[in-house]
Amino acid sequence: MNDDIYDDMTGSEPPNWDFKDRDIAILCELSNDPQLSSRELTDVLKTEYDIDVSHVTVSESIRRMRDEGVFREAIIPNEEYYIFALFEFKFNPEHFAENWRDAMEYIKEDKHTLFFFLSNGEYQWKTVMMFRSREQISKWIHDCYKDHGDVIANLRNTAVHNVLKFQTDPRIYQDLRAESTDQ
Predict the structure, then answer these.
(1) For the whole model, what pTM was predicted?
(2) Confidence of residue 73 (pLDDT cuts 50, 70, 90)
(3) What does the pLDDT read at residue 1?
(4) What is the DSSP string of 67-100?
(5) In a 10 Å sphere around its CB, with 0-12 CB exposed, 13-18 middle and 19+ buried, how is residue 128 labelled?
(6) What would the pLDDT profile of 125-159 be if each residue is shown by its tens digit?
(7) How far, in Å, CA of 127 to CA of 85, rounded?
(8) Which of 18, 127, 172, 174 is the most buried (most CB within 10 A)?
(9) Beta strands 83-91 and 152-160, pairing class
(10) Distance, CA of 42 to CA of 48 (rounded, Å)
């Protein structure tokens, strides 16, 4: 897949952000508890990280990181309410160039799509989707093939059972600190 099509699919530039220790600490703490107020974060930064800033500075940092795309916010329903499914899409190269955009937008904008991403290999589009019933899953697959079968050569569907972890581990942000000190 050429880079122009990839850029069209993703529709965004990577964030341009120079991480300060404060930013990394804020991301770590929000990963632990996304409901922390800027005042509470200010206290945590002082006691846990020895970073002394005002709650206004913390609030502004969060806003700027959000606006720049450093992190995204989403409301994820409890898995008890939905059936989660992994869908993997294999393309029909014969019709891909003319029809990929309509198929991509159909999947991306569908109310069932939680997470949509590109990958390598035979099945290049993958989604995590949420449905209330197995019947909804079958109907969605049927409708997808009916509307976009010229682009999709195959659709693999895997049921997701017993979600064991759905959280960003705050330790992952330590990699950002290591990278910023390497430069």
Answers:
(1) 0.75
(2) confident
(3) 44
(4) HHTSS-------TTSSEEEEEEEEE-HHHHHHHH
(5) middle
(6) 999 999 999 999 999 999 999 999 999 999 999 98
(7) 8
(8) 127
(9) antiparallel
(10) 10
Residue 8 has pLDDT above 80, yes or no: no
Residue 45 CB coordination number (10 Å) = 21
Q: What pLDDT, on a 0 to 100 scale, did the predictor assign at position 41?
A: 97
Q: How do the domains of the chain map onto residue ranges?
A: 10-75, 83-160
Report the relative pairing of strands 113-118 and 123-131 from DSSP bridges.
antiparallel
Helices within the chain (DSSP H only): 3-10, 21-32, 38-49, 55-68, 93-109, 134-148, 174-182
Looking at 1.10.10.10, 3.40.50.300, 2.60.40.10, 3.50.50.60, the CATH number of the domain 10-75 comes to 1.10.10.10
Chain mean pLDDT for the chain: 89
Amino acid making up residue 79: E
Q: Considering the domain 83-160 in this protein, what is its CATH number? A: 3.30.70.920
